Amino acid sequence: MPKLTESAVERRKGRIEEAAKQLFIRQGFHATSMRKIASKAGTSLGNLYNYYPTKEAILGSIIAKYQQVIDEKLRSIFDEVQDPLSRDDLTRFAQLIKQMVNDHHDFWLLMYIDVLEFENRHFRKMFENIAQKLRRRFANSFDDLKRKNVLHDGVDPAIGFTAAYMQFFNYFIVEKLFGGNMHFGISDEQVIERLTDIYSRGLLRGSHPVKRSVTKRRTTSTPQRSRKRTSR
Length: 232
Hints:
The protein is mainly α. It has 2 domains: 1-53, Homeodomain-like (Arc Repressor Mutant, subunit A, Orthogonal Bundle); 64-201, Tetracycline Repressor, domain 2 (Orthogonal Bundle). The protein contains 11 helices and no strands. Helix 9 packs antiparallel against helix 10 (188-201).
């Protein structure tokens, strides 16, 4: 039997991983057997084991490939951000996060499968030390904000930008995966506008806080109470 070329092997593995991914998403990892994967991929169980020694090896390969795509996407997104706390860059950043979440629906579903069935063993590194990574990535921009003394006292720009990043990410995950259906009660564009306003103006000096109107309580004067008592 002639040896398969590397490209032919990758095509077969691609079919297996696509079949496994669909089964994992539809019925969960532990409810999916190697036999079911082989059947859906149109290959024999023995041939499946030639490529993957375990079911988790298939999942690990799927996630690793997706992770490369997501990492590259995030790098390109961050490359478009010059001033992380500016209104224009935050708006653009939020729009790109929305697009990334929408374009990689299966990846986020696998992430939740990993959380439920593996205690986030495979995706944990994606969320480790995010603030520190962003602090290094935007060190020059953050240092420039500090030199200009435009930050409110005690504000860490890396923490502020991390909070904005996670807020946008979580918002669109809820909308895309959990059918949030405008869970803020406003459109995506309005959410981006309102959150951008919070993070850009709320973190920097010179913002213009909304003046809150004070409603005076109506009180009954002492003389009136006295008159009522004396009239009885």
